[in-house]
Amino acid sequence: MVTRHFLRDDDLSPAEQREVLDLAARLKRAPFSQRPLEGPQSAAVFFDKTSTRTRFSFAAGISELGGSPIIVNPGEAQLGVKETIADTAKVLSRMVSLIVWRTFDHAGLVEMAEHATVPVINSLSDDFHPCQILADLQTIRERKGELAGLTATYVGDAANNMGHSYLLGFATAGMHIRVAGPAGFHPRADIVADAERIAARTGGSVSVFTDPVAAVSGADAVITDTWVSMGQEDEKAARVATFGAYRITPELMAHAEADAVFLHCLPAYREFEVAPEVIDGPQSVVWDEAENRVHAQKALMTWLLDRA
């Protein structure tokens, strides 16, 4: 059997994505009903970037599945420095049941997966953040029911990993996904093309906007992310000036559906990308979204291990 990995959102077909989300809902109701890592078996969890939600959600999730997470912080391993990624993948495949990696260059994850005989999970790269999207889909489904046919709008830096993953993951769910950002901050053309091909099969659609009001109008979910990601701190002043018109305010939310929900993958910077009245208001589901990282990732790990 070919080992399945999860490196980008479209590594799951629409039917497979639904299976994972269905399992996530069951695991939320019965957290200890699946124990695929009983033993305990171990999972390697690498962090090239520091983290709060990713670290805690994977550590907690692996433990709840009966396993033991081996957390490797930045600078604690020889991965890709004194030892090749390929050699590391071959060694770890004989020691652990899963490899989870939060890193920079997506190509490293691809190389890891090419040489690993256990599932490799992208917990964040510069190009994609697919585990976050599974949690977001679970959160929206909890509030809205069937995902297919819903409209979601992501506003802000549409050229980043979140913009890319929303296009792929939400198109896979059959949703109408819109991303809005200023000129020069739109998603890669190849990612847009991939998402359009998926949407053509699922009945969804893909749209890229510059005008945030047009993008948000009639949306069932409005989403944003920080304007200044890790490693961009020196660009803060310029990025704040560039994205000022893309701040999620009550006035912008008023253009969405009256029962629209607001999501943010966190950490959030109030008064920058989102007004406090929105993220702390009744339309916000960010705390459910954060919790659902645990459930969605547990479902994903269980699903992948079942096919390992």
Automatic annotation (TrEMBL):
Cross-referenced Pfam families: OTCace, OTCace_N
EC numbers, comma separated: 2.1.3.3
SUPFAM superfamilies: Aspartate/ornithine carbamoyltransferase (SSF53671)
Annotated binding of carbamoyl phosphate, by residue: 51-54, 78, 102, 129-132, 265-266, 293
Domain of life per record: Bacteria
Pathway recorded for this protein: Amino-acid biosynthesis; L-arginine biosynthesis; L-arginine from L-ornithine and carbamoyl phosphate: step 1/3
Keywords: Cytoplasm, Transferase
Compartment list: Cytoplasm
Aspartate/ornithine carbamoyltransferase carbamoyl-P binding domain sequence ranges: 4-142
Catalysis: reaction(s): carbamoyl phosphate + L-ornithine = L-citrulline + phosphate + H(+)
Any one GO biological process: L-arginine biosynthetic process via ornithine
Main location group: cytoplasm
Entry annotated with the keyword tRNA processing: no
One Gene Ontology cellular component annotation held by this UniProt entry: cytoplasm
GO terms assigned for molecular function: amino acid binding; ornithine carbamoyltransferase activity
PROSITE patterns: CARBAMOYLTRANSFERASE (PS00097)
Residue numbers binding L-ornithine: 161, 225, 229-230
Cross-referenced NCBIfam families: orni_carb_tr, PRK00779.1
Stored PANTHER family: ORNITHINE CARBAMOYLTRANSFERASE, MITOCHONDRIAL, ORNITHINE TRANSCARBAMYLASE, MITOCHONDRIAL
Record protein name field: Ornithine carbamoyltransferase
Organism: Leucobacter luti
